[in-house]
């Protein structure tokens, strides 16, 4: 009986985590490759001021396109969409990831290294 209860508790925990909307991680080298191949739409969720100071090249400013996100994403609902925010401890990326998922996108990932990891890896940013 105890084993059954433990099994149910573990199943419930993982079910809640899946429902909570966690997205698979994507590494900086994987993002770089996808950018080079033109196979990714990046969404920066750091806010307009941060976006102007520097963002991953080609990323959309979520604060600017949020209401019009559907027109900014590719027609292919299976296309790679990557959301990121400031760094590993930032959870704001989920707003963009959830918005893309709600629009029917099925390949939504999280660059958990965030902008700070991108810069720390020596990658260039765009400023606007």
Description of the structure:
Strands 2-1-3-4 form a four-stranded parallel beta sheet, sandwiched between helices. It has one domain: 3-Layer(aba) Sandwich (Oxidized Rhodanese, domain 1), CATH 3.40.250. The protein is an alpha/beta fold and 128 residues long. Helix content is 46%, strand content 12%.
Summary?
The chain has 7 helices and 4 strands; from the N terminus they run ααβαβααβαβα. With 128 residues, the chain is of the alpha/beta class. The protein has a single domain, classed as Oxidized Rhodanese, domain 1 (3-Layer(aba) Sandwich).
Decide which structural class fits the backbone.
alpha/beta
Shape-level CATH architecture: 3-Layer(aba) Sandwich
Summed over residues and divided by their number, the pLDDT gives a mean of: 87
Tally of separate helices: 7
The arrangement of helices and strands along the chain is HHEHEHHEHEH
| General shape | globular
The total domain count is 1
Predict the CATH topology: Oxidized Rhodanese, domain 1
Looking at CATH, the homologous superfamily is Rhodanese-like domain
DSSP E strands, number: 4
Low-confidence stretches: 1-21
What fraction, in percent, of the residue positions are helical? 40-55%
Distance between the termini: 61 Å
């Amino acid at each position: 009986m105890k084993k059954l209860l433990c099994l149910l508790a573990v199943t419930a925990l993982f079910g809640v985590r899946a429902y909570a909307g966690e997205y698979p991680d994507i590494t900086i080298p994987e993002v770089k490759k996808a950018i080079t191949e033109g196979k990714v739409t990046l969404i920066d969720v750091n806010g307009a001021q941060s976006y102007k100071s520097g963002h991953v090249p080609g990323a959309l400013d979520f604060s600017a396109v949020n209401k019009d996100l559907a027109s900014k994403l590719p027609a292919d609902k299976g296309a790679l969409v990557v959301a990121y925010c400031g760094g590993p401890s930032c959870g704001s990326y989920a707003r963009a990831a959830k918005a893309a998922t709600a629009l029917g996108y099925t390949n939504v990932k999280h660059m958990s290294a965030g902008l700070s990891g991108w810069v720390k890896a020596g990658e260039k940013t765009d400023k606007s």
